[in-house]
Amino acid sequence: MTDRANPNILITGTPGTGKTSTAAQVAALSGLKHICVGDWVKEHSLHSGWDEEHQCYLLDEDKVCDALEDLASEGGCIVDHHGCDFFPERWFDLVVVLQTDNTLLYDRLAARGYGPSKVQENVQCEIMMVVLEEARDSYREEVVQALRSDTAEQLEANVSQLVAWIKQFQAQHA
């Protein structure tokens, strides 16, 4: 149990499942701070170089955790990232794993301009439920929640559900 007035939520999932869209909308409606880890890595040089094969920065997990420690301790953060096993368990009051139909995911990633191997790798991760298993292995069962993220209606329902959860948390910790 936490003594923070505002919760920390981790929104995770395979790339293309709607993490950033969900997190941004929840933050806008709740007043909590949205932290897109991918953006933070670039803005604050929290990486150890560029991965040419995957066309992304090599995230330095220690640097990311050090940079987020004070904010996470204060509470009121919605953290959005495709990985979750390196964040301290104590940071999060809720871990949401977004999941998407494989065909939709394929189309979303292709539309982003991901190369065939990167699309295939991410679709395989979704098929194997890698992120959900990682979350279940890294956090207490009662804080991990899987949500479907196939349609705009599901996105809207997920946002509403998360905002209601935040309000309930705040009322219980006032």
Protein architecture, described:
With 174 residues, the protein is of the alpha/beta class. It has one domain: P-loop containing nucleotide triphosphate hydrolases (Rossmann fold, 3-Layer(aba) Sandwich). The protein contains seven helices and seven strands. The protein has helices spanning 19-30, 37-43, 61-74, 102-111, 116-127, 130-138, 152-172, and strands spanning 9-13, 33-36, 47-51, 56-59, 77-80, 94-99, 144-148. A five-stranded parallel beta sheet has the order 2-5-1-6-7, sandwiched between helices. It has a two-stranded antiparallel sheet with strand order 3-4. A hairpin with a 4-residue loop joins strand 3 (47-51) and strand 4. It is globular.
Which features does this protein show?
alpha/beta; 7 strands; 174 residues; two-stranded antiparallel sheet; single chain; Rossmann fold
Give the topology.
Layout: E1 9-13, H1 19-30, E2 33-36, H2 37-43, E3 47-51, E4 56-59, H3 61-74, E5 77-80, E6 94-99, H4 102-111, H5 116-127, H6 130-138, E7 144-148, H7 152-172
Parallel strand pairs: 1-5, 1-6, 2-5, 6-7
Antiparallel strand pairs: 3-4
Helix pairs in contact: 1-7, 4-5
